[in-house]
């Protein structure tokens, strides 16, 4: 078997990825499926870090639109990501893969505080690192947190897990004429306002020439194929 193309990757998961067919919360069967895919990749010898969102539990932006103070709403959203991080960590460890949850908001009873060099050391020791609480700052999305953490740990690529097969010219769920783009530049994503990650995250990746692979998490084995460098989804590159 060919060796993995990437030795250190950052996987960005939305909170909705854990939701399954439910309207909110965590579907344990879906968490198990994702954990199995992650375990398969870790056993290839790949160093894997994860940033997870919290939209299945609480959306800060939505609450802000309904009148809640934006900073307060964002902090609540950060706490939701920690719940997801703990749930995912537990599911992964059932496959005999060691994990560590690191949070940008200090809560020592449930997770380690984020320290960059400690995170890198965990990766070097073969542990899957799950980052919670976003960047620890309001007004920044977990997309931006993923870009930031990827830079800090010197990841070679961001693997952006979605529910569609890559980057499209429009939302394929709403527009049946939307076409998939195999390769697209960071600048094109910004100029055409393609729904990949928010503009802050894309700009950060563009400035640091960090590629993003956008793929469908719901297709079994896609995460492994992406890590091996097979053509899967869309590649956002400099």
How does this structure look, described?
The protein is of the alpha/beta class. It has a single domain (8-237), classed as Carbamate kinase, CATH 3.40.1160. Helix content is 37%, strand content 19%. The chain has helices spanning 28-42, 60-65, 70-93, 116-124, 142-153, 186-191, 199-207, 222-228, and strands at 8-13, 47-52, 99-103, 112-113, 128-132, 157-162, 167-168, 180-181, 183-185, 212-216, 234-237.
SSE order and pairing:
Blueprint: E1 8-13, H1 28-42, E2 47-52, H2 60-65, H3 70-93, E3 99-103, E4 112-113, H4 116-124, E5 128-132, H5 142-153, E6 157-162, E7 167-168, E8 180-181, E9 183-185, H6 186-191, H7 199-207, E10 212-216, H8 222-228, E11 234-237
Parallel strand pairs: 1-2, 1-6, 2-5, 3-4, 3-5, 6-10, 9-11
Antiparallel strand pairs: 7-8, 10-11
Helix pairs in contact: 1-3, 1-8, 5-7
- Oligomerization state of this entry? single chain
The DSSP helix count reads 8
For the biggest sheet, the summary is: 9 strands, mixed
Enumerate the strands of the largest sheet in spatial order, edge to edge or round the barrel: 4-3-5-2-1-6-10-11-9
* H/E series: EHEHHEEHEHEEEEHHEHE
Summarize model confidence as the mean pLDDT: 93
State the name of the first-level CATH class.
Alpha Beta
Q: Which percent range fits the helix content?
A: 25-40%
Question: Looking at this structure, what is the CATH superfamily?
Answer: Acetylglutamate kinase-like
Entry keywords:
238 residues, alpha/beta, Carbamate kinase, nine-stranded mixed beta sheet, two-stranded antiparallel sheet
């Amino acid at each position: 078997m060919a060796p993995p193309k990437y030795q250190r990757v950052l996987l960005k998961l939305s909170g909705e990825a854990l939701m399954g067919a439910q309207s909110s919360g965590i579907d344990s069967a879906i968490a198990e499926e994702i954990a199995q895919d992650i375990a398969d990749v870790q056993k290839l010898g790949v160093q894997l870090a994860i940033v997870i969102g919290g939209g299945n539990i609480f959306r800060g932006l939505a609450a802000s639109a309904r009148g809640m103070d934006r900073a307060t709403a964002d902090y609540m959203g950060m706490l939701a990501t920690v719940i997801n991080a703990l749930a995912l960590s537990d599911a992964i460890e059932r496959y005999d893969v060691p994990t560590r949850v690191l949070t940008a908001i200090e809560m020592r009873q449930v997770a380690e505080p984020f320290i960059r060099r400690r995170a890198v050391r965990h990766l070097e020791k073969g542990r899957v690192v799950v980052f919670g609480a976003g960047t620890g700052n309001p007004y920044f999305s977990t997309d931006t947190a993923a870009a930031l953490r990827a830079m800090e740990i010197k990841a070679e690529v961001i693997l952006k897990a979605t529910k569609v097969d890559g980057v499209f010219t429009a939302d394929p769920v709403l527009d049946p004429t939307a076409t998939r783009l195999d390769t697209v530049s960071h600048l094109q994503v910004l100029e055409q306002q393609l729904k990949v990650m928010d503009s802050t995250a894309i700009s950060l990746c563009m400035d640091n020439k960090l590629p993003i692979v956008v793929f469908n998490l719901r297709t079994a084995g896609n995460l492994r194929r992406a890590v091996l460098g097979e053509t899967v989804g869309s590649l956002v590159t400099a």
